[in-house]
Task: inverse folding
């Protein structure tokens, strides 16, 4: 694995802080009704993305995830201003403002969404890996899902075929403890989710999802296996989300103390402490990064606010139409 140097820690700190603050801003503008529809935030889970990005090659490797999907495309190189604009429903957004929160997508940046159907992205992820294998490209697909998604039939069917066809895919469960308001303990006798891989003879294991170094090490090993023809891996990242499932969640299913406990192992604080302890950065350096992050969030907000809504005609351009559909007369 690439060494985790001072520069890597500095990048992790700045990236993760930016993702956190970018989403804090989204929460604020959501309350002002500038961003509408559903909004699922990634606060707390940032180390999973930071560690992954250290271990992959974003030029060849692909990411696909569920609806908690605002910061992954930014990590893959999409301009954050365009992500913010998409959430505002503006024409300058990644999907011309027509997709919104759950559907960020950028094929050019190897980010394949953004999927609202729980578990729906799991077979799609295997499909992306199948294409890489079929066309003899050496890309690896990283397919993310929540702890709730692993109980969908699609996971079990996909695991079987992915193993049978020896696909270059890494399945990653981000176990944040809850599927909406339902804890893992209420949905499964066996709470070590990674063990689901055992039934398919798939290499699998648990990972500390609050620590980007641990994430990077595990993802590196899995990606190397996949790239060298060794097939799929299933990793369970043990993580936590600080905010509710979506913006309309009263969070009666957990205590404030539980949230505070997890904040003690917050990935951003952990990385900041390493920067200070190892003397990789001084307080003034941290303050400079914090200021850069704040300014960039402001820039994104300004860009989204000032952009125009899409022209109404665009709606008709993006509707799928099959010219030879035989059952309904669709042309007036
Ligand atoms: C097939 C399907 N069933 C139910 C829902 C409603 N739903 C949306 S999110 C969610 C919980 C999923 O939790 P998890 O997989 O743990 O992901 P997290 O939100 O924690 O990231 C449910 C049940 C849905 N979107 N799709
Ligand atoms: Mg969950």
Result:
């Amino acid at each position: 694995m690439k060494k985790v140097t001072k520069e890597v820690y500095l990048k992790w700190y700045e990236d993760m802080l930016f993702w956190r603050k970018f989403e804090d801003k989204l929460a604020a503008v959501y309350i002002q009704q500038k961003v509408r529809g559903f909004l699922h935030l990634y606060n707390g889970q940032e180390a999973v993305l930071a560690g992954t990005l250290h271990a992959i090659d974003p030029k060849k490797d692909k990411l696909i995830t569920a609806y908690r999907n605002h910061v992954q495309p930014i990590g893959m190189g999409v301009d954050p201003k365009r992500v913010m604009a998409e959430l505002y429903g503006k024409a300058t957004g990644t999907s011309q403002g027509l997709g919104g929160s759950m559907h960020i997508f950028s094929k050019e940046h190897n980010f394949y969404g953004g999927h609202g159907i729980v578990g729906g992205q799991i077979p799609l992820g295997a499909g992306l890996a199948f294409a890489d294998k079929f066309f003899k490209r050496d890309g690896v697909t990283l397919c993310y899902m929540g702890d709730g998604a692993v109980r969908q039939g699609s996971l079990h069917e996909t695991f079987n075929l992915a193993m049978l066809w020896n696909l270059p895919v890494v399945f990653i469960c981000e176990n944040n403890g809850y599927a909406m308001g339902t804890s893992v303990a209420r949905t499964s006798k066996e709470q070590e989710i990674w063990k689901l891989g055992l039934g398919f003879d798939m290499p699998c294991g648990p990972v500390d999802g609050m620590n980007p170094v641990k994430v990077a090490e595990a993802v590196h090993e899995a990606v190397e296996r996949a790239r060298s023809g060794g097939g799929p891996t299933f990793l369970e990242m043990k993580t936590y989300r600080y905010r509710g499932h979506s913006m309309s969640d009263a969070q009666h299913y957990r205590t404030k103390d539980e949230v505070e406990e997890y904040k003690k192992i917050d990935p951003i604080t952990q990385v900041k402490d390493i920067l200070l302890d190892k003397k990789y950065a001084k307080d003034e350096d941290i303050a400079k990064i914090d200021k850069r992050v704040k300014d960039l969030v402001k820039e994104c907000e300004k860009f989204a606010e000032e952009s125009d809504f899409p022209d109404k005609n665009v709606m008709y351009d993006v509707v799928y139409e099959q010219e030879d559909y035989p059952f309904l007369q669709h042309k007036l």
Summary: Residues 1 and 221 are 8 Å apart (CA to CA). Residues 6-31 form the longest helix (26 residues).
